[in-house]
Structures are given as C-alpha cells and as structure tokens.
Amino acid sequence: MASEMHLSLIAAMLRRGKTLDRASSALSLLALVIGLGPLLGFMALNTGASVCIALLLCGLIQKYYALRVALDAELFASLADAPEQLQRRTAELDQALLWLGRKAKPARSWEQRSQGALRLLRLQALWLGLQLMVALAAIVLMPWLSHIRFG
Fold first, then answer.
1. pLDDT, tens digit, for every residue of 57-105?
2. Does residue 89 lie within any of the structural domains?
3. What's the rounded Cα separation, in Å, for the pair 135 and 140?
4. Model confidence, pTM
5. Residue 119: which domain range?
6. CB 3.0 to 4.6 Å from 11: which of 26, 68, 77, 126, for a disulfide?
7. What count of Cα atoms within 13 Å lies in the side-chain half-sphere of residue 136?
8. Where does 36-99 have alpha helices with state H?
C-alpha cells in the first residue's frame, strides 16, 4: 500500500512537468514566429519551414504528455491528502476510468501506477529534449544550410 509520503513525492515530481511544458511552449512559439516570418515581413530561410515543422511536431507530442502528467500530478496529490481512504478512492478512480472508456486492466498497485506516471514524465522530457536538439542543430547548421538551394 502506498504511503502519504510516497504519493506526495510522486505528485511533486510530476508537477515538474509544468516547467518542461513551459520550455517547450516557448520553443513552439518561437517556431511559429519563424515559420510565419515571411508573412510578417521577415526574411525566410530555405530550411526554416522544415525546422519549424519539426519543432512544432515535437512540441505537440510533448504537450500531449504534459497534459497526462499534469492530470496524474493532480490525482496523486488528491490521493495523498487522504491516504486512509486510498483503497476506496482507488476503486472509485478505476470505475471513473472505465466510465471514460479506458479498457479494464487488472488491478495495479500504486507502485506500478507511480512507475507508469514517472514513465510519462520521462517521455515528456524526452520530447522536450528532441525539440531542444532540433533547435540547437538548426542554430549550428543554419549558416551552412541557408546556402543550399532546394528545388
């Protein structure tokens, strides 16, 4: 059985996903500004569109995981507030998930649920990392790529 401290710790770790999401949102906004640059009167680069698309795609996937991590953070925090009711609230949570259309799975322990939630946080961080790598690669390679003519 998970303890109050265990649930609180997982909730606190999952709340760090909000910081990851903010960083990704900033990169996505930058990609939109660069991608829409020609419409705003800025000079367009030949490779700018593909970089912007890659940044936005990574940002959207990261946003999906950020939403799931934020939901898990709220659930873990809520459950940590009343650990003596954990068994009843777990059954209610599983019933609510079934009602939302989630396929029935065998009962999972809170340790397994914690590992699953932290896996989502790692995936969120991975997609932000990929987004950062695309941005850094574009910064480093753009002087050379801007001289290449496509089509």
1. 999 999 999 999 999 999 999 888 887 788 888 888 888 888 888 776 7
2. no
3. 9
4. 0.83
5. 4-81+109-145
6. 77
7. 6
8. 37-40, 48-81, 86-99
